[in-house]
Write a structure and sequence with these properties.
about 350 residues; alpha/beta; Nucleotidyltransferase, domain 5; 3 domains; 5-stranded mixed sheet; 13 helices; about 10% strand
């Protein structure tokens, strides 16, 4: 029997494979070691392969595509309903095989090596930013125990710490001064690492035309633009801008029944990092918008006049997501005074 559809349960060393023929009958149930994967699928006739979008999924998708197979990645939460029995590798592979053949299944775009590379830089920078914030809060908390209060803001710590350590009249013991000095040096190292990775992202931004076009949108800078381009990939995978906004979790959750529409807060689905960047950029626009002469008559000005600033920021982030889709999917540039044709 010819195998037409395969589901693979990915792992570090042991991979479970489940294959069916054109009639949906199981004809392949096999457990493969990592070293056997490439040779096995190289000798297999081209077929549809489904995998969950988890660790190493994009690597295996590229590898199997090179052997002539059609590979589809799916969010794990969409595969879970197809698991019929208790969870094990064989049941997971069977569920993946069944889910990938569903006509309404949603798939994850396969990322190339360059996209994964710049996203890795983003994730590393995000980790350093979190560590820098934690280190700054620790220094501020330790000094507060001795009655020394530093204002909020990471820059205030680096600015005031040398003077605090040099002040001999503040009552700090020697061992504590040495500790705070060590923590301050660590904070400076983290700050330097954040700046270095920021330069890497900026260099990639300057070389990528799509990210430069996205940075023309108010509320989107080089960091957000590069993250959008690397994460989204081919924007034509989304039917429209609203679908992209929903993918980012920027649309209301629904709890509707009996014909009554109930809309709640935003769904917060999708990439938390990407949604955070979009909302923070929108907050910056909302903060400076009242200073502009045309603010009162603008779409944002009218929205801010009747809604909370936080609601306006999320609404602007949603609008920006739709604009991002239009620019990437239709290969256009941002037009501030764009008017839809009648």
């Amino acid at each position: 029997m010819k195998v037409t559809t395969i589901g693979i349960d990915l792992a570090k060393e042991v991979f479970q494979v489940h294959g069916v023929d054109e009639h949906g009958k199981a004809v392949l149930k096999k457990c493969l070691k990592r070293a056997q994967m490439s040779a096995f699928f190289a000798n297999l006739p081209p077929c549809l392969i489904g995998m969950e979008a988890c660790g190493s999924a994009h690597h295996w998708a590229r590898k199997l595509q090179a052997h002539g197979h059609t590979v589809r990645l799916m969010p794990p939460q969409f595969v879970k309903p197809y698991v019929k029995t208790n969870k094990n590798d064989a049941a997971d592979a069977e569920a993946i095989c069944e889910a990938v053949a569903r006509p309404n299944m949603r798939f994850v775009p396969i990322k190339d090596t360059e996209q994964q590379g710049i996203l890795a830089v983003h994730r590393a920078r995000q980790g350093f930013v979190r560590a820098r914030t934690a280190q700054g809060n620790q220094i501020r908390g330790l000094l507060a125990e001795y009655g020394i209060v530093i204002p909020q803001g990471i820059h205030n710590i680096a600015k005031r710490l040398p003077g605090i350590l040099e002040d001999a009249d503040n009552g700090l013991p020697g061992i504590f001064r040495q500790l705070v000095q060590t923590l301050g040096e660590h904070l400076n190292q983290l700050d330097q690492q954040v700046d270095e990775l920021g330069e890497v992202i900026l260099a990639w931004y300057k070389e990528n035309e799509d990210s430069r076009k996205l940075a023309e949108i108010p509320g989107i800078g080089p960091i957000t633009a590069t993250a959008l381009v690397a994460t989204i990939g081919d924007a034509k995978g989304f039917a429209n801008g609203r679908q992209m906004a929903a993918w980012m979790g920027l649309v209301p959750r629904q709890h509707s029944s009996g014909g009554k529409q109930v809309l709640l807060g935003i769904s917060k689905r999708g990439d938390v990092y990407l949604r955070t960047l979009m909302i923070h950029g929108a907050r910056a626009v909302v903060r400076v918008a009242p200073c502009k002469d045309s603010h009162e008559d603008s779409w944002l000005g009218k929205l801010m006049g009747r809604r909370n600033p936080n609601v306006a920021a999320v609404a602007l982030a949603n609008k920006n997501a739709r604009i991002v889709w239009a620019i990437l999917a239709q290969d256009r540039r941002y037009e501030a005074d764009y008017q839809r044709a009648a």
